[in-house]
């Protein structure tokens, strides 16, 4: 059975978000120098680093389960909007000479999460649809 092109793009978007968030977990949970630097700079070390890591792990797991994609993508999108906001207001786009790599990763995850949420909009429970009605049309 062949997968439709739109389904393939949907899966790829989810996997890209999971892979990017997943690979950053090691750095958050092992207190890598760059991760500690970032969360110290925004006044959230260590609780923010560990908390964001846990939330990214949850978002990644939810993105892999077909019935919870909407929740995982919504959580991932929210986390990435926060990361992008911190980059633009406190950290700058380039952090410790990374050439903007972390900023780009956050942007890619945000875009993949937004697409995944839009593709899974039919799964969103009614009590949540009330708050997102214009986006879910």
Number of strands: 0
Number of domains: 1
Percent of residues in β-strands: under 5%
Spatial shape: globular
Percent of residues in helices comes to over 70%
Compute the separation of the termini in Å.
Answer: 30 Å
**Class based on secondary structure composition and strand pairing:** mainly alpha
Contiguous helical run count: 6
H and E string: HHHHHH
**Residue windows where pLDDT falls under 50 for at least 5 positions:** none
Radius of gyration: 16 Å
Mean pLDDT: 93
Task: Please tell me about this protein's structure.
This protein is mostly helical. The chain has one domain (8-129). It contains six helices and no strands. The chain has helices spanning 5-29, 33-41, 47-64, 69-91, 101-119, 126-129. Helix 3 packs antiparallel against helix 4. The longest helix is centred in the N-terminal third of the chain and has 25 residues, at 5-29. The relative contact order is 0.14. The model has no long low-confidence stretch (mean pLDDT 93).
SSE layout and pairing:
Layout: H1 5-29, H2 33-41, H3 47-64, H4 69-91, H5 101-119, H6 126-129
Helix pairs in contact: 1-3, 1-5, 3-4, 4-5
The gist of it:
This protein has six helices and no strands. It is an all-alpha fold.
Relevant terms:
mainly alpha; 0% strand; 137 residues
